[in-house]
Design brief:
Layout: H1 2-7, H2 9-14, E1 18-21, H3 28-39, E2 46-49, H4 54-62, E3 68-72, H5 73-82, E4 91-106, E5 110-111, E6 117-118, E7 130-133, H6 136-148, E8 153-156, H7 160-168, E9 174-179, H8 184-187, E10 195-196, H9 203-206, E11 211-215, E12 224-236, H10 241-256, H11 258-263
Parallel strand pairs: 1-2, 1-3, 7-8, 7-9
Antiparallel strand pairs: 3-12, 4-9, 4-10, 4-12, 5-6, 11-12
Protein name: TRAP transporter substrate-binding protein
InterPro entries: TRAP_TAXI (IPR011852)
Organism: Deinococcus irradiatisoli
Length: 285
């Protein structure tokens, strides 16, 4: 039936360009979108819109400015369960993707008067301190603060660079970033100037949103306990036959080409974590 939908010349003339909200240039979402485009001819119907991340992407999707968006699952859950936005229930998962790890970055603690340490060595020590975040990481920071009961101040920045500059300048105590590892920009940080803090939160407090994970960056020493959240490529519950055909062809191609996405040189390493299994959010069918 899908082949019939896609086979007619009349349909091919009526195919519309669909906008896809990804993320920052060179980021995981933008790279994985490009990888899909390299293998799926149906991607010729898609046009990338780079954004600040999951929060903006959900807003763009719900306001009908894009037809697809890469988002974090916790951002969708927060929009539905915390914000009570009824429009969230119309979002559907086209492709369940990889897990994205929570990176908590700080400067190494320093010794002050009488040898007292200043700074934090773990998440639980961030009470009454300031944590910078941007995009979907802002939602993650607020969810963790509420669930873990660690009362830090979340400072919102427009971009990753702005948050890192604030950390470098001593305006905040840590940066919280949700990004699939290994992130090139994290690998580029100097281990003499920055540390990765363990996310020491009891699993039962956050299991509805996150699952345990490890950060592995050899330059920063041993693996660091953290949590991860699933990333998704989502769309709205479109009914138009032509648009459904486009979306389902793109979905089918991605699933058929998963092995190549995992094994071809140059593909993002996070494809190796993708199984396309259900995310716990309604699928697009």
């Amino acid at each position: 039936m899908l082949g019939a939908l896609l086979g007619g010349a009349a349909l091919s003339q009526n195919l519309s360009v669909l906008n896809v909200a990804t993320g920052s240039k060179g980021g995981t979402y933008a790279t994985m979108y490009k990888n899909l485009g390299d293998l799926c001819t149906s991607a010729s119907w898609l046009r990338e819109r780079q954004t600040s991340g999951s929060v903006e992407n959900v807003d763009l999707l719900l306001s009908n400015e894009v037809s697809l968006a890469f988002v974090q699952l916790d951002v969708l859950k927060a929009r539905d369960q915390i914000d009570g936005d009824p429009r969230a229930k119309a979002i559907r998962v086209l492709l369940p993707l990889h897990q994205e790890e929570i990176h908590l970055i700080a400067k190494p603690p320093t010794k002050g008067f009488l040898g007292r340490l200043s700074g934090a060595t773990r998440f639980s020590e961030l009470g009454n301190k300031s944590v910078g975040a941007w995009g979907g990481s802002v939602v993650t920071a607020n969810v963790l603060r509420a669930k873990a009961g660690v009362n830090f101040n979340v400072k919102v920045y427009p971009t990753r660079d702005a948050a890192l500059a604030a950390l470098a300048g001593g305006q905040i105590d840590a940066v919280l970033a949700v990004v699939g590892q290994p992130a090139d920009w994290v690998k580029a940080l100097s281990p003499q100037q920055y540390v990765l803090l363990p996310l020491d939160v009891a699993a039962d407090k956050v299991s509805a949103f996150y699952q345990p994970a490890k950060l592995i960056y050899p330059a920063f020493g041993a693996s660091v306990p953290t949590y991860s959240v699933q990333s998704l490529l989502v769309t709205r519950d479109f009914k138009t036959p032509e648009k459904r055909a486009q979306l389902l062809k793109y979905q089918a191609c991605a699933k058929a080409k998963l092995t190549r996405l995992q094994e071809d040189e140059g593909m993002h390493p996070k494809w190796n974590d993708v199984t396309f299994k259900s995310s716990g959010w309604p699928d697009y069918k």
